[in-house]
């Protein structure tokens, strides 16, 4: 309980500084806003300084945050986060084996919907089909989002497409580059992978217990940071823009975009998300190859159905519904 109280005080302190927008707040004003003593305020400010925040203290003016940490921290993500529930509970660790594994444990421990697990490094990050995901320290965004949607389990894959739109929009808003979405779970810039998404479901036949959406985003890697086998197929925000980006800013933007889309989805269904997804989609209308568990299908990509299933028209005119596959395009 004490830990939760401390966390609530820190969150309220960060909210107050965010509202001040770089202005000064007196120790007493902070104590009144947060509902604690001035001594508690001082202790939490010292905690922020230990994390790398530059907090100025000026007599008769109070405190203000002058600089945020260069390293990724949970408190830096919280500073300025304007959502109702997505990301309001953040579990941050410097190093984990996999944020997906941590999120699964938190879901079993009744963590609230919208809990975000973030790590500066993953030692055993993974993508679809248990492929290894390169997640080095201090470079990218490695995070998992816990959801508890009241939807039929068969509709859970739609949340992967929703997350892809939220990530694309967040990168566009925060970094000024526009990714393309490769069905179902990759984001590309100039044909190179910048983000992967992994959605895992815990459910019974008729009820979802939780959905965990894992997101790996290359942000500040340079070409030399990628292993040899990835150098020709991967890119990062910094490589595309020529300058480093704030990982915390991108995460906050993602949380805001995801919450907006998720609430729209729960109210209006998948169709509005489908339209947004198609605006970022790559390869629709062209020829592609889908390598499924049951064989290889080639043809023209027609788009996705109202349920989010990929449609490919084969050379004989038959339309194939693709629920899961590795996609190759363009094909001549």
From the alpha-carbon coordinates, what is the Rg to the nearest angstrom? Answer: 21 Å
**Number of folding domains?**
3
Structural class: alpha+beta
CATH architecture identity of the largest domain: 2-Layer Sandwich
What is the end-to-end distance? 62 Å
Large-scale geometry: elongated
Question: Unreliable segments (pLDDT under 50, ≥5 consecutive)?
Answer: none
| Biggest sheet descriptor | 7 strands, mixed
| Helical stretch tally | 9
Protein name: Bifunctional ligase/repressor BirA
Binding site for biotin: 122, 126-128, 193
Keywords: ATP-binding, Biotin, DNA-binding, Ligase, Nucleotide-binding, Repressor, Transcription, Transcription regulation
Domain BPL/LPL catalytic: 79-266
Describe the protein in words:
This protein is of the alpha+beta class. It has three domains: 2-67, Arc Repressor Mutant, subunit A (Orthogonal Bundle), CATH 1.10.10.10; 74-280, Bira Bifunctional Protein, Domain 2 (BirA Bifunctional Protein, domain 2, 2-Layer Sandwich), CATH 3.30.930.10; 287-328, SH3 type barrels, CATH 2.30.30.100. The protein is 33% helix and 27% strand.
């Amino acid at each position: 309980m004490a830990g939760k109280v401390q966390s609530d005080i820190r969150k309220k302190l960060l909210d107050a500084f965010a509202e001040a927008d770089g202005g000064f707040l007196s120790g007493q004003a902070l104590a009144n806003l947060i509902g604690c003593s001035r001594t508690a305020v001082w202790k939490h400010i010292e905690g922020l300084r230990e994390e790398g925040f530059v907090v100025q203290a000026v007599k008769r003016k109070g405190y203000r945050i002058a600089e945020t940490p260069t390293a990724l921290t949970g408190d830096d993500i919280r500073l300025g986060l304007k959502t109702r529930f997505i990301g309001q509970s953040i579990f941050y660790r410097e190093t984990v084996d996999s944020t997906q594994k941590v999120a699964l444990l938190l879901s079993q421990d009744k963590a609230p919907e919208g809990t975000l697990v973030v790590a500066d490094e993953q030692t055993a990050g993974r993508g679809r089909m248990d492929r290894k995901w390169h997640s080095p320290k201090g470079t990218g965004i490695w995070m998992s989002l816990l959801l508890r949607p009241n939807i039929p389990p068969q509709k859970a894959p739609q949340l992967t497409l929703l997350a892809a739109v939220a990530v694309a929009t967040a990168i566009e808003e925060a970094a000024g580059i526009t990714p393309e979405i490769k069905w179902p779970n990759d984001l590309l810039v100039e044909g190179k992978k910048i983000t992967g998404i992994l959605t895992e479901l815990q459910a019974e036949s008729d009820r979802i217990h939780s959905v965990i959406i894992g997101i790996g985003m290359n942000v500040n890697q340079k070409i030399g940071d990628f292993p040899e086998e990835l150098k020709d197929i991967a890119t990062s925000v910094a490589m595309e823009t020529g300058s480093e980006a704030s990982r915390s800013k991108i995460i906050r933007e993602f949380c805001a975009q995801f919450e907006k889309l998720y609430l729209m989805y729960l109210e209006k269904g998948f169709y509005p998300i489908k339209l947004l997804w198609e605006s970022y989609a790559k390869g629709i209308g062209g020829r592609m190859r889908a390598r499924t568990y049951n064989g290889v299908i080639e043809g023209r990509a027609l788009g996705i159905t109202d349920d989010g299933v990929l449609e490919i028209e084969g050379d004989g005119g038959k339309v194939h519904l693709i629920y899961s596959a590795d996609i190759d395009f363009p094909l001549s």
